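Here is my example:
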Amino acid sequence: MGIYIGTSGYFFPDWSKTFYPKGLSQRLWLRYYIMHFPALELNSTFYAIPPQERIKKFVSQLPDDFVLTVKIPRSITHEEPNKKELSDYISELENAIAPAKDKKVFKGFLAQFPVSFRFSRKNFEKLKAIVEALTRPLFVEFRNFSWRNEETMDFLKENDVGWVIPDVPALPELTRLEPLATTEVAYLRLHGRNAKNWYGGGDRYDYFYSDEELGEIAELVRLISSWTKDTYVFFNNCHMGQAAINAKKFAKMFGQQFPQGDLFE
């Protein structure tokens, strides 16, 4: 059983002076990050698929026992690619992350669908096409609660696809925080509970978890990790470094001691 805690992305200018020390060169940010966390959800791939050489250089800096998950592009999950486009996108993505697979730090793809992606026959067919095209491990986050049904659960289990447990505001249609896993690996994404800004009016990820809230989530993680092989927990409340600060405090609840190593050794 392993509990791996990190953040959804690491390269944010507004993390300077909140998580990254003042004056620390950006070229050292990844090295500083891996001193504090054993896992990372790479989110830049959501916006554009990077060249393979960039991924090769990136993973060369990671420890061999690091946990890396990769978010698939919005061109797949948030748009409507035809069959050929989907095949081309996935082929490009698989080729790009090949160095992470070679190093064995790659632990899965993340497919995150918007709340507008509701359960329907058409959308179910789109889900099936994506699942059939991607290699495993694969984890899927449905923002819309309509996917929390028996047909979806059976499909995910039969195809060895993980259900992502999100923590979001208690708003209509949004998926709920609950102990649930469809594979031997549990996957949590903690977005914050900023209900006021969730649908506009500001940064929806501008949220700082209280100690009490972290304690409640920790109890859920302890429960689910008792019957799964591994549990991944990624904080996505990234505004002003809040994700990193919360993640460090959360890790301490499980006895994880960081930083490890010296930045300049």
About this structure: The domain at 2-252 is CATH 3.20.20.410 (TIM Barrel). DSSP finds ten helices and eight strands in the chain. The chain has one domain: 2-252. Strands lie at 2-8, 39-42, 67-71, 106-113, 138-142, 162-167, 185-190, 230-235.
